[in-house]
Amino acid sequence: MSELQQCAFCKSWQPGRIQVPGGKFYCSMVCIESDLFGQAHCRWCGEEIKKPYTSIESRLCSDSCSAFYWAHVMGDRTAAIGTGKRYMLWLQKNHPREYREAAGVSATSGLCQNPDCTRGDNGQASSLTHLRTGARFCSELCRKRGSRAA
User: Fold this and answer.
1) Per-residue model confidence (pLDDT) at position 105
2) Which of 27, 63, 93, 114 is deepest in the core (most CB within 10 A)?
3) What residue numbers bound the domain in which 112 lies?
4) Strand partners, 19
5) Are residues 82 and 149 both part of a single domain?
6) Is the model's pTM score more than 0.85?
7) Given this model, what pLDDT does residue 16 score?
8) From the centroid of its chain, how far is CA 51?
9) Could you read off the pLDDT of 40-53 as tens digits, one per residue?
10) How far apart are CA 106 and CA 130, in angstroms?
């Protein structure tokens, strides 16, 4: 039986919690995203915001975050709280190794195999399509770091 952990957001006690990077436990994706993208954080990317709350726009840290939020949260609702879309984007940006695990990126995915590589688009692992067949790393630096991580 799983050990009981208290949810970092709603404070309920249940077995089978979800642990996020940083060690916090949550009971659901709704609680994860509510904590990461609520209160004093950007509603899209999770960056800390220190200015006082006056409107939804005061909780969006940039024009690009505002555009994505209005299109995917308020618009088509593909990134509504609890869907996991914003959490995966947050993981991709802030914890690339955990993102690759959660997204199921494998050695045959055509991406650099250094778990900490962020040289690709939007902080993702770099593509290997421009390299020879069978290449596993995008650069000598990633090869060295990837070998140490293994």
Assistant:
1) 59
2) 114
3) 106-150
4) 25
5) no
6) no
7) 66
8) 24
9) 999 999 999 998 99
10) 18
